[in-house]
Write a structure and sequence with these properties.
The chain is of the alpha/beta class. It has seven helices and 13 strands. The longest helix is centred in the middle third of the chain and has 17 residues, at 132-148.
Protein backbone atom coordinates (compact mmCIF):
# COMPACT_ATOMS: atom_id res chain seq x y z
CA UNK A 1 0.00 0.00 0.00
CA UNK A 2 1.32 3.42 -1.00
CA UNK A 3 0.20 6.52 0.91
CA UNK A 4 0.69 10.19 0.06
CA UNK A 5 0.77 12.38 3.18
CA UNK A 6 0.21 16.13 3.25
CA UNK A 7 -1.09 18.73 5.70
CA UNK A 8 -1.71 22.45 6.14
CA UNK A 9 0.54 23.16 9.15
CA UNK A 10 3.74 22.75 7.13
CA UNK A 11 6.22 19.94 6.60
CA UNK A 12 7.98 20.53 9.94
CA UNK A 13 4.81 20.40 12.06
CA UNK A 14 4.78 17.75 14.83
CA UNK A 15 1.49 16.39 13.50
CA UNK A 16 2.82 15.33 10.11
CA UNK A 17 6.10 14.08 11.58
CA UNK A 18 4.23 11.82 14.02
CA UNK A 19 1.75 10.69 11.34
CA UNK A 20 4.55 9.80 8.93
CA UNK A 21 6.33 7.73 11.58
CA UNK A 22 3.15 5.86 12.50
CA UNK A 23 2.03 5.17 8.92
CA UNK A 24 5.52 4.10 7.84
CA UNK A 25 4.96 0.99 9.94
CA UNK A 26 1.96 -0.05 7.85
CA UNK A 27 2.65 1.26 4.32
CA UNK A 28 5.06 2.89 1.90
CA UNK A 29 4.64 6.59 2.66
CA UNK A 30 5.75 9.79 1.01
CA UNK A 31 5.31 13.37 2.23
CA UNK A 32 4.58 16.35 0.01
CA UNK A 33 3.51 19.24 2.22
CA UNK A 34 3.53 23.05 2.36
CA UNK A 35 6.74 24.85 3.24
CA UNK A 36 4.92 27.08 5.72
CA UNK A 37 1.66 27.06 7.66
CA UNK A 38 -1.28 27.25 5.24
CA UNK A 39 -4.22 26.88 7.61
CA UNK A 40 -7.65 27.92 6.32
CA UNK A 41 -6.59 27.72 2.66
CA UNK A 42 -9.38 25.27 1.83
CA UNK A 43 -9.00 23.98 -1.76
CA UNK A 44 -7.06 27.00 -3.05
CA UNK A 45 -4.64 26.40 -5.92
CA UNK A 46 -1.75 28.70 -6.87
CA UNK A 47 -2.28 29.69 -10.50
CA UNK A 48 -0.39 32.97 -10.97
CA UNK A 49 3.07 32.20 -9.61
CA UNK A 50 5.44 29.22 -9.97
CA UNK A 51 5.69 26.45 -7.43
CA UNK A 52 9.00 25.00 -6.29
CA UNK A 53 9.63 21.64 -4.66
CA UNK A 54 12.50 21.07 -2.23
CA UNK A 55 13.54 18.01 -0.23
CA UNK A 56 14.28 18.21 3.50
CA UNK A 57 16.99 16.19 5.21
CA UNK A 58 14.39 13.66 6.41
CA UNK A 59 13.15 13.05 2.86
CA UNK A 60 9.98 15.12 3.16
CA UNK A 61 9.28 17.17 0.06
CA UNK A 62 7.89 20.65 0.61
CA UNK A 63 6.25 23.17 -1.69
CA UNK A 64 5.88 26.94 -1.57
CA UNK A 65 2.15 26.56 -2.03
CA UNK A 66 -1.13 25.48 -0.52
CA UNK A 67 -2.14 22.04 0.75
CA UNK A 68 -4.18 21.44 -2.40
CA UNK A 69 -1.18 22.52 -4.51
CA UNK A 70 0.94 19.87 -2.81
CA UNK A 71 -1.48 17.04 -3.48
CA UNK A 72 -2.27 18.28 -6.98
CA UNK A 73 1.32 18.39 -8.22
CA UNK A 74 2.13 15.14 -6.42
CA UNK A 75 -0.66 13.34 -8.26
CA UNK A 76 -0.11 14.98 -11.65
CA UNK A 77 3.56 14.24 -12.11
CA UNK A 78 5.77 14.64 -9.05
CA UNK A 79 5.30 11.16 -7.58
CA UNK A 80 5.35 9.21 -10.81
CA UNK A 81 2.83 6.72 -9.45
CA UNK A 82 -0.74 6.68 -8.17
CA UNK A 83 -0.99 6.23 -4.39
CA UNK A 84 -3.62 3.96 -2.90
CA UNK A 85 -4.55 6.50 -0.24
CA UNK A 86 -4.13 10.22 0.45
CA UNK A 87 -3.87 11.18 4.12
CA UNK A 88 -3.80 14.76 5.41
CA UNK A 89 -2.82 15.88 8.91
CA UNK A 90 -2.61 15.52 11.72
CA UNK A 91 -3.97 19.04 12.07
CA UNK A 92 -3.18 21.21 15.08
CA UNK A 93 -6.78 21.66 16.24
CA UNK A 94 -10.22 20.39 15.33
CA UNK A 95 -11.82 20.51 11.90
CA UNK A 96 -15.47 20.03 12.80
CA UNK A 97 -18.69 21.52 11.51
CA UNK A 98 -18.15 24.63 9.41
CA UNK A 99 -14.38 24.27 9.83
CA UNK A 100 -14.40 21.77 6.98
CA UNK A 101 -15.27 24.51 4.47
CA UNK A 102 -12.17 26.53 5.34
CA UNK A 103 -9.74 23.79 6.36
CA UNK A 104 -6.55 23.29 4.39
CA UNK A 105 -6.28 19.86 6.00
CA UNK A 106 -9.63 18.87 4.52
CA UNK A 107 -8.71 20.66 1.28
CA UNK A 108 -5.64 18.48 0.80
CA UNK A 109 -7.66 15.31 1.36
CA UNK A 110 -10.42 16.56 -0.90
CA UNK A 111 -7.89 17.12 -3.69
CA UNK A 112 -7.00 13.44 -3.48
CA UNK A 113 -10.69 12.54 -3.55
CA UNK A 114 -11.22 14.70 -6.65
CA UNK A 115 -8.53 12.62 -8.36
CA UNK A 116 -10.48 9.47 -7.54
CA UNK A 117 -8.35 8.32 -4.61
CA UNK A 118 -9.68 7.36 -1.16
CA UNK A 119 -8.67 10.16 1.19
CA UNK A 120 -8.69 10.96 4.91
CA UNK A 121 -8.27 14.23 6.80
CA UNK A 122 -7.03 13.70 10.37
CA UNK A 123 -7.24 16.43 13.03
CA UNK A 124 -6.54 16.52 16.75
CA UNK A 125 -9.27 18.30 18.66
CA UNK A 126 -7.12 20.56 20.85
CA UNK A 127 -4.25 22.79 19.76
CA UNK A 128 -0.76 22.40 21.14
CA UNK A 129 0.14 18.88 19.97
CA UNK A 130 -0.68 17.25 23.30
CA UNK A 131 -0.89 13.45 22.97
CA UNK A 132 0.10 13.76 19.30
CA UNK A 133 1.85 10.38 19.36
CA UNK A 134 -1.37 8.76 20.58
CA UNK A 135 -3.32 10.51 17.82
CA UNK A 136 -0.84 9.27 15.23
CA UNK A 137 -1.09 5.71 16.53
CA UNK A 138 -4.88 5.89 16.35
CA UNK A 139 -4.68 7.21 12.78
CA UNK A 140 -2.36 4.36 11.78
CA UNK A 141 -4.65 1.84 13.45
CA UNK A 142 -7.60 3.15 11.44
CA UNK A 143 -5.66 3.00 8.17
CA UNK A 144 -4.41 -0.51 8.95
CA UNK A 145 -7.93 -1.77 9.62
CA UNK A 146 -9.25 -0.14 6.46
CA UNK A 147 -6.55 -1.80 4.39
CA UNK A 148 -7.28 -5.17 6.01
CA UNK A 149 -10.93 -4.80 5.04
CA UNK A 150 -9.92 -3.82 1.49
CA UNK A 151 -11.50 -0.37 1.80
CA UNK A 152 -8.36 1.24 0.41
CA UNK A 153 -8.07 1.16 -3.36
CA UNK A 154 -11.80 0.77 -3.93
CA UNK A 155 -14.09 3.54 -5.18
CA UNK A 156 -12.99 6.97 -3.92
CA UNK A 157 -14.33 8.22 -0.61
CA UNK A 158 -13.50 11.12 1.70
CA UNK A 159 -13.47 10.92 5.49
CA UNK A 160 -13.02 13.71 8.02
CA UNK A 161 -11.69 12.25 11.29
CA UNK A 162 -11.27 14.21 14.53
CA UNK A 163 -9.26 12.56 17.30
CA UNK A 164 -9.67 13.70 20.92
CA UNK A 165 -6.60 14.90 22.78
CA UNK A 166 -6.38 11.85 25.04
CA UNK A 167 -3.96 9.00 25.74
CA UNK A 168 -4.55 6.07 23.41
CA UNK A 169 -6.09 3.88 26.09
CA UNK A 170 -8.49 6.65 27.13
CA UNK A 171 -9.94 7.17 23.65
CA UNK A 172 -13.36 5.72 23.09
CA UNK A 173 -14.56 3.95 19.95
CA UNK A 174 -14.97 5.43 16.50
CA UNK A 175 -18.34 7.09 16.10
CA UNK A 176 -19.88 7.84 12.73
CA UNK A 177 -21.49 11.27 12.87
CA UNK A 178 -22.65 14.28 10.91
CA UNK A 179 -21.04 17.69 10.91
CA UNK A 180 -22.21 20.07 13.61
CA UNK A 181 -22.35 23.85 13.21
CA UNK A 182 -20.47 26.77 14.70
CA UNK A 183 -21.64 30.24 15.59
CA UNK A 184 -20.30 32.98 13.33
CA UNK A 185 -16.64 33.89 13.84
CA UNK A 186 -15.66 36.36 16.52
CA UNK A 187 -15.39 40.06 15.63
CA UNK A 188 -12.47 41.22 13.54
CA UNK A 189 -9.45 42.33 15.58
CA UNK A 190 -7.97 45.74 14.81
CA UNK A 191 -4.50 47.01 15.66
CA UNK A 192 -2.41 50.02 14.73
CA UNK A 193 0.75 49.38 12.76
CA UNK A 194 4.06 51.11 13.65
CA UNK A 195 3.32 53.51 10.78
CA UNK A 196 -0.11 54.39 12.09
CA UNK A 197 -2.16 52.29 9.66
CA UNK A 198 -5.07 50.16 10.85
CA UNK A 199 -4.44 46.41 10.60
CA UNK A 200 -7.21 43.83 10.59
CA UNK A 201 -7.00 40.25 11.84
CA UNK A 202 -9.73 37.69 11.21
CA UNK A 203 -11.45 36.84 14.49
CA UNK A 204 -11.34 33.42 16.09
CA UNK A 205 -13.71 30.59 15.21
CA UNK A 206 -17.11 30.70 16.87
CA UNK A 207 -18.17 28.27 19.55
CA UNK A 208 -20.28 25.23 18.72
CA UNK A 209 -23.85 26.15 17.72
CA UNK A 210 -25.11 22.66 16.92
CA UNK A 211 -23.35 20.12 19.13
CA UNK A 212 -26.32 17.80 19.59
CA UNK A 213 -25.97 14.06 19.85
CA UNK A 214 -24.97 12.67 16.50
CA UNK A 215 -22.60 15.54 15.66
CA UNK A 216 -18.82 15.53 15.54
CA UNK A 217 -18.73 18.07 18.39
CA UNK A 218 -20.77 15.78 20.63
CA UNK A 219 -18.72 12.69 19.77
CA UNK A 220 -15.31 14.19 20.51
CA UNK A 221 -16.56 15.86 23.70
CA UNK A 222 -17.44 12.37 24.93
CA UNK A 223 -13.98 11.04 24.05
CA UNK A 224 -14.93 9.31 20.80
CA UNK A 225 -13.02 9.50 17.54
CA UNK A 226 -15.45 11.32 15.24
CA UNK A 227 -15.71 10.00 11.67
CA UNK A 228 -17.70 11.98 9.10
CA UNK A 229 -18.02 10.99 5.42
CA UNK A 230 -17.84 14.07 3.19
CA UNK A 231 -18.79 14.77 -0.41
CA UNK A 232 -18.11 17.55 -2.89
CA UNK A 233 -21.64 18.06 -4.20
CA UNK A 234 -22.78 21.43 -2.79
CA UNK A 235 -26.20 21.30 -4.46
CA UNK A 236 -29.10 22.11 -2.14
CA UNK A 237 -31.16 19.11 -3.27
CA UNK A 238 -33.89 19.76 -0.70
CA UNK A 239 -34.71 23.14 -2.24
CA UNK A 240 -34.31 22.32 -5.94
CA UNK A 241 -38.08 22.19 -6.38
CA UNK A 242 -38.60 25.54 -4.65
CA UNK A 243 -36.00 27.27 -6.77
CA UNK A 244 -37.36 25.69 -9.95
CA UNK A 245 -40.71 27.38 -9.25
CA UNK A 246 -39.06 30.62 -8.21
CA UNK A 247 -36.85 30.66 -11.29
CA UNK A 248 -39.91 30.35 -13.51
CA UNK A 249 -41.42 33.44 -11.87
CA UNK A 250 -38.16 35.36 -12.15
CA UNK A 251 -38.04 34.55 -15.85
CA UNK A 252 -41.56 35.85 -16.36
CA UNK A 253 -43.07 32.39 -16.37
CA UNK A 254 -41.93 31.68 -19.93
CA UNK A 255 -38.49 30.14 -19.59
CA UNK A 256 -37.95 26.53 -18.54
CA UNK A 257 -36.57 26.34 -15.01
CA UNK A 258 -33.27 24.89 -16.15
CA UNK A 259 -32.58 27.91 -18.39
CA UNK A 260 -32.06 30.36 -15.54
Amino acid sequence: MKILISNDDGYQAPGIVALHAALAAVADVEVVAPEHNNSAKSNALTLHSPLYVHTASNGFRYVNGTPADCVHIALTGLLGYRPDLVVSGINNGANMGDDTIYSGTVGAAMEGYLFGIPSIAFSQVDKGWGEIEAAAQKAAEIVRQMAARKLVGESPWLLNINIPNLPLQAMRSLKLCRLGRRHAAERVITQESPRGDVMYWIGGAGAAKDDAEGTDFHATAAGHVAVTPLKVDLTDHQNLGYWAQTAAHLAGGDAPSEDI
